[in-house]
Amino acid sequence: MGTDQAHRDMGRALLEFQGAVFGALVIVGTAVLLSQPDALDPLLYAVGAGVITVATLITLICHNRPVLQRFAVLLPLVDLLGIRFTAHAEGATLSGGALLLILPMIWIAYSFGGRGILAGVALLVITTPVGLLQAYGGDMEPGNFTRIVAYPLTLLILAGAAGVSGARIRRKKVQLAAQTALTEQAVRARDDLIEAVTHELRTPLTSILGNAELVLHTNDAQAIERRAGVIVHNAEQMDTILADLLLARSTGTALLGLHITATDVRGLIENCLAASRTAADARGVSIDVSASDTLWTEIDPNRIRQVFDNLLTNAIKYNQVGGTVVISETRTVNTVTFAVTDSGCGIAPADRARVFEPYYRTESARHSSQEGSGLGLGISRDIARRHGGDLRLVESSARGSRFELILPLALSGHEDAVAQSGHENEQIVA
Ligand code: ADP
In testing the pocket of ligand 1, which one of 276, 317, 318, 357 has its CB within 8 Å of the most ligand atoms? Predict the structure, then answer.
């Protein structure tokens, strides 16, 4: 629920409450005036009724003002005072005004809980005549039992019950709001997923159908071979998208299983480069690597390969034709950082955090011919973090972007790594 709505609800509730107190006072006052006019002290009664009338007028005029709502507990406390005056005015034997005290007490307890009850009781005790309080100390007359014991006790029990109900309802409201937010989030995620899947799968599927149709209607062996190549390429793309979707689901619900092994990251990068060569050549993008010849560390090679693939694919596909990509490496005592810098269109400041969100693609990417699911960076960052590292977008401007993959250097040298992992023969295959 928004703050404005909460304020409006509170303002309306205050108005209804004040209306009830004022209405009850008018009815009880008229009844007392008609039945026992002599028992009333007109001055006290006028003061009490005046206090409540003023409180009602203030509520009527100001019920939409946040400041009144912030001090909402004061209103029923003012009513308690007003009703106390009218109760005194009726004399000790009449109880019309005294009974009215129940109304604000229950409202206070219901709306403001334990502290509200304490404030209300304290105010009642302070405004109770000394003579009435003395009755508790001396011998209790049977006639006074209802007024001095039963009535206050009933008031307290009712207020306590209202306080407990109010607290329970407030708790339920909070739970309900949290559940509603979760449900809305799940519905939004489902809609996003359907949209992303439909959008991402439609393009390669259309291409597969179109090319398959052409293959059916031609006898030209060269054309068939070319079309078949396109079909295979698009089918592979669909396979990658589906794998990404499955991985996104699993990372959302379960721990990603890592198979850590001593790996030469430089060798792994070379394999990624070989796999990206065709795409880079197609766009005339040159790739430079400035990193040590070998760098052994303990990682899950398949997962980290996936991260490099993602960074490299993005650096190529969001680059300008004829652009550049540079992969560089820096080390500290405990970490190694691989930076992938491209000369592409860059990412607008508002999008920089969002590109790691599942299914998020920048507007320029959505409108470009470059396909994607918007899942890669989120998955890659998750993989990096599961290794104890991170993936960050550290720089982006109209001249390009720079992503940094930080990995912990668990072991300093190849020998150590092999000795500790016992996986000397484990090789990374492109
Ligand atoms: P995909 O590339 O499949 O859409 P990613 O999660 O890899 O998904 O990237 C999310 C979005 O971030 C991309 O759609 C693109 O808008 C933006 N992006 C990622 N890398 C780059 C880059 N190097 N240059 C410009 N934009 C990028």
Answer: 318
15-56, pLDDT tens digit by residue? 999 999 999 989 988 888 888 878 788 898 899 999 999 999
Residues with beta carbon inside 6 Å of ligand 1?
A: 310, 314-315, 318, 342, 344-345, 347, 355, 361-362, 365, 372-378, 401
Question: Distance between CA 36 and CA 46 in Å, rounded?
Answer: 16
| Inter-residue contact 68 to 108 (CB < 8 Å) | no
**Ligand 1 center from residue 358 Cα (angstroms):** 11
Domain-wise residue ranges, the chain? 3-183, 258-429
Spacing, Cα 108 to ligand 1 middle (Å): 56
Residue nearest to atom 13 of ligand 1 (CA): 361
Residues 352-407 have pLDDT tens digits of: 989 999 888 998 898 888 878 788 898 899 889 989 999 999 999 999 999 999 99
CB 166 within 8 A of CB 109: yes
- Cβ neighbours of residue 333 under 8 Å, at least 6 residues apart? 409
Q: Best mutation site among 195, 352, 355, 396 for ligand 1, i.e. most ligand atoms within 8 A of its Cβ?
A: 355
Model confidence band, residue 95 (pLDDT cutoffs 50, 70, 90): low
Burial (Cβ within 10 Å: 0-12, 13-18, ≥19) of residue 141: exposed
CATH of 258-429 among 3.30.565.10, 3.10.620.30, 3.40.190.10, 1.10.510.10: 3.30.565.10
> Mean per-residue pLDDT for 270-285?
87
Sign of CA dihedral 125, 128, 131, 132: negative
Distance of alpha carbon 231 from alpha carbon 364, whole angstroms = 27
In a mutational test of the pocket of ligand 1, which residue from 314, 351, 357, 394 has the highest number of ligand atoms less than 8 Å from its CB? 314
Residues 207-254 have pLDDT tens digits of 889 889 989 998 999 989 988 988 888 888 788 778 777 776 665 533
Q: What percent of the chain has pLDDT over 70?
A: 87
